[in-house]
Amino acid sequence: MAIYSAAAGGAVVDAANLLEFLPSTHTWLVTFMSIWLEAGYLVSGFLAWVFMGMFSCAPGVKPCHRADNMGWRYLHFTCGATVLVLAVLRISVVRLVQTPKWLVNQNKDEELVKILTDIATRYKRPLSLTLEQFKELGSVRLTEKSAWSGIRMRHHCSALFETKKLAWSTTLIVSIWGVLGIATPLYVVFLPYYLASRGAAVGDNRNSTVWRNYAITHIVGLSAPIIATLLVETKYLGRRGTLVIAALLTMVLQFGYTQIKTPAQNLAFAASISVAL
């Protein structure tokens, strides 16, 4: 689990790659593209609803033999095979290229001009930049072949704390992600036990019901990237205002969730939190 969770973390590269290619007028697409993350949860939820509901032992039933509990294995086989096929297609068909920003930082001027020329040709846009112009501007320092260079890593990290404001921003971002990493497993794993110990009726615990609710939650969650995209483009809110609203809503809903008493309230709060997040 640790290994494939670490591998899944590489998905952040997609957003960085997209952002570096987008013109400033279309940066909202980075926010909107997160809809595919929710779509992935939805697909896995539907698959889990089928596999876990049909090929798993009922909760609390013992003994539970391997032959009677193949649902989670089928789910991993299916999702893993899908990711593998898409990864191969991404390398062989989609063929992502390095971004101009990265190429500039690596002094790869020839490759940079070629990529910019290809983009201009494909989208029928004029391009006046030449290789000679880049050469005249000199070269970038601290460029090394190894991505794990100590000099490069130190330069990248120190740049995040160059000013007080930037250091404060970096600290807050790291802290938020750290708290999120702690809160998510607590919310997913611990909270149901907490609610059950307090007498809350969250519905039956049959596999089909649990994964049906999971799928419904993420169907509702598909609206989150759309709402966020509209809000970040709003004049008086922007990205910071949208982040504040989402954080406050999530906080209120998380506290409210601890007070649920019925299965309907359980599903409603879970779906609402999915949208707020």
Compact summary:
With 277 residues, this protein is an all-alpha fold. It contains 14 helices and no strands.
Topology:
Layout: H1 2-8, H2 12-21, H3 28-32, H4 35-54, H5 71-94, H6 100-105, H7 109-122, H8 131-136, H9 150-159, H10 164-197, H11 207-221, H12 223-232, H13 238-257, H14 263-276
Helix pairs in contact: 4-5, 4-11, 11-14, 13-14
Describe the structure in your own words.
By secondary structure, the chain is an all-alpha fold. It contains 14 helices and no strands. Helix 4 runs antiparallel to helix 5, helix 4 packs antiparallel against helix 11 and helix 13 runs antiparallel to helix 14. The protein starts with a helix and ends with a helix.
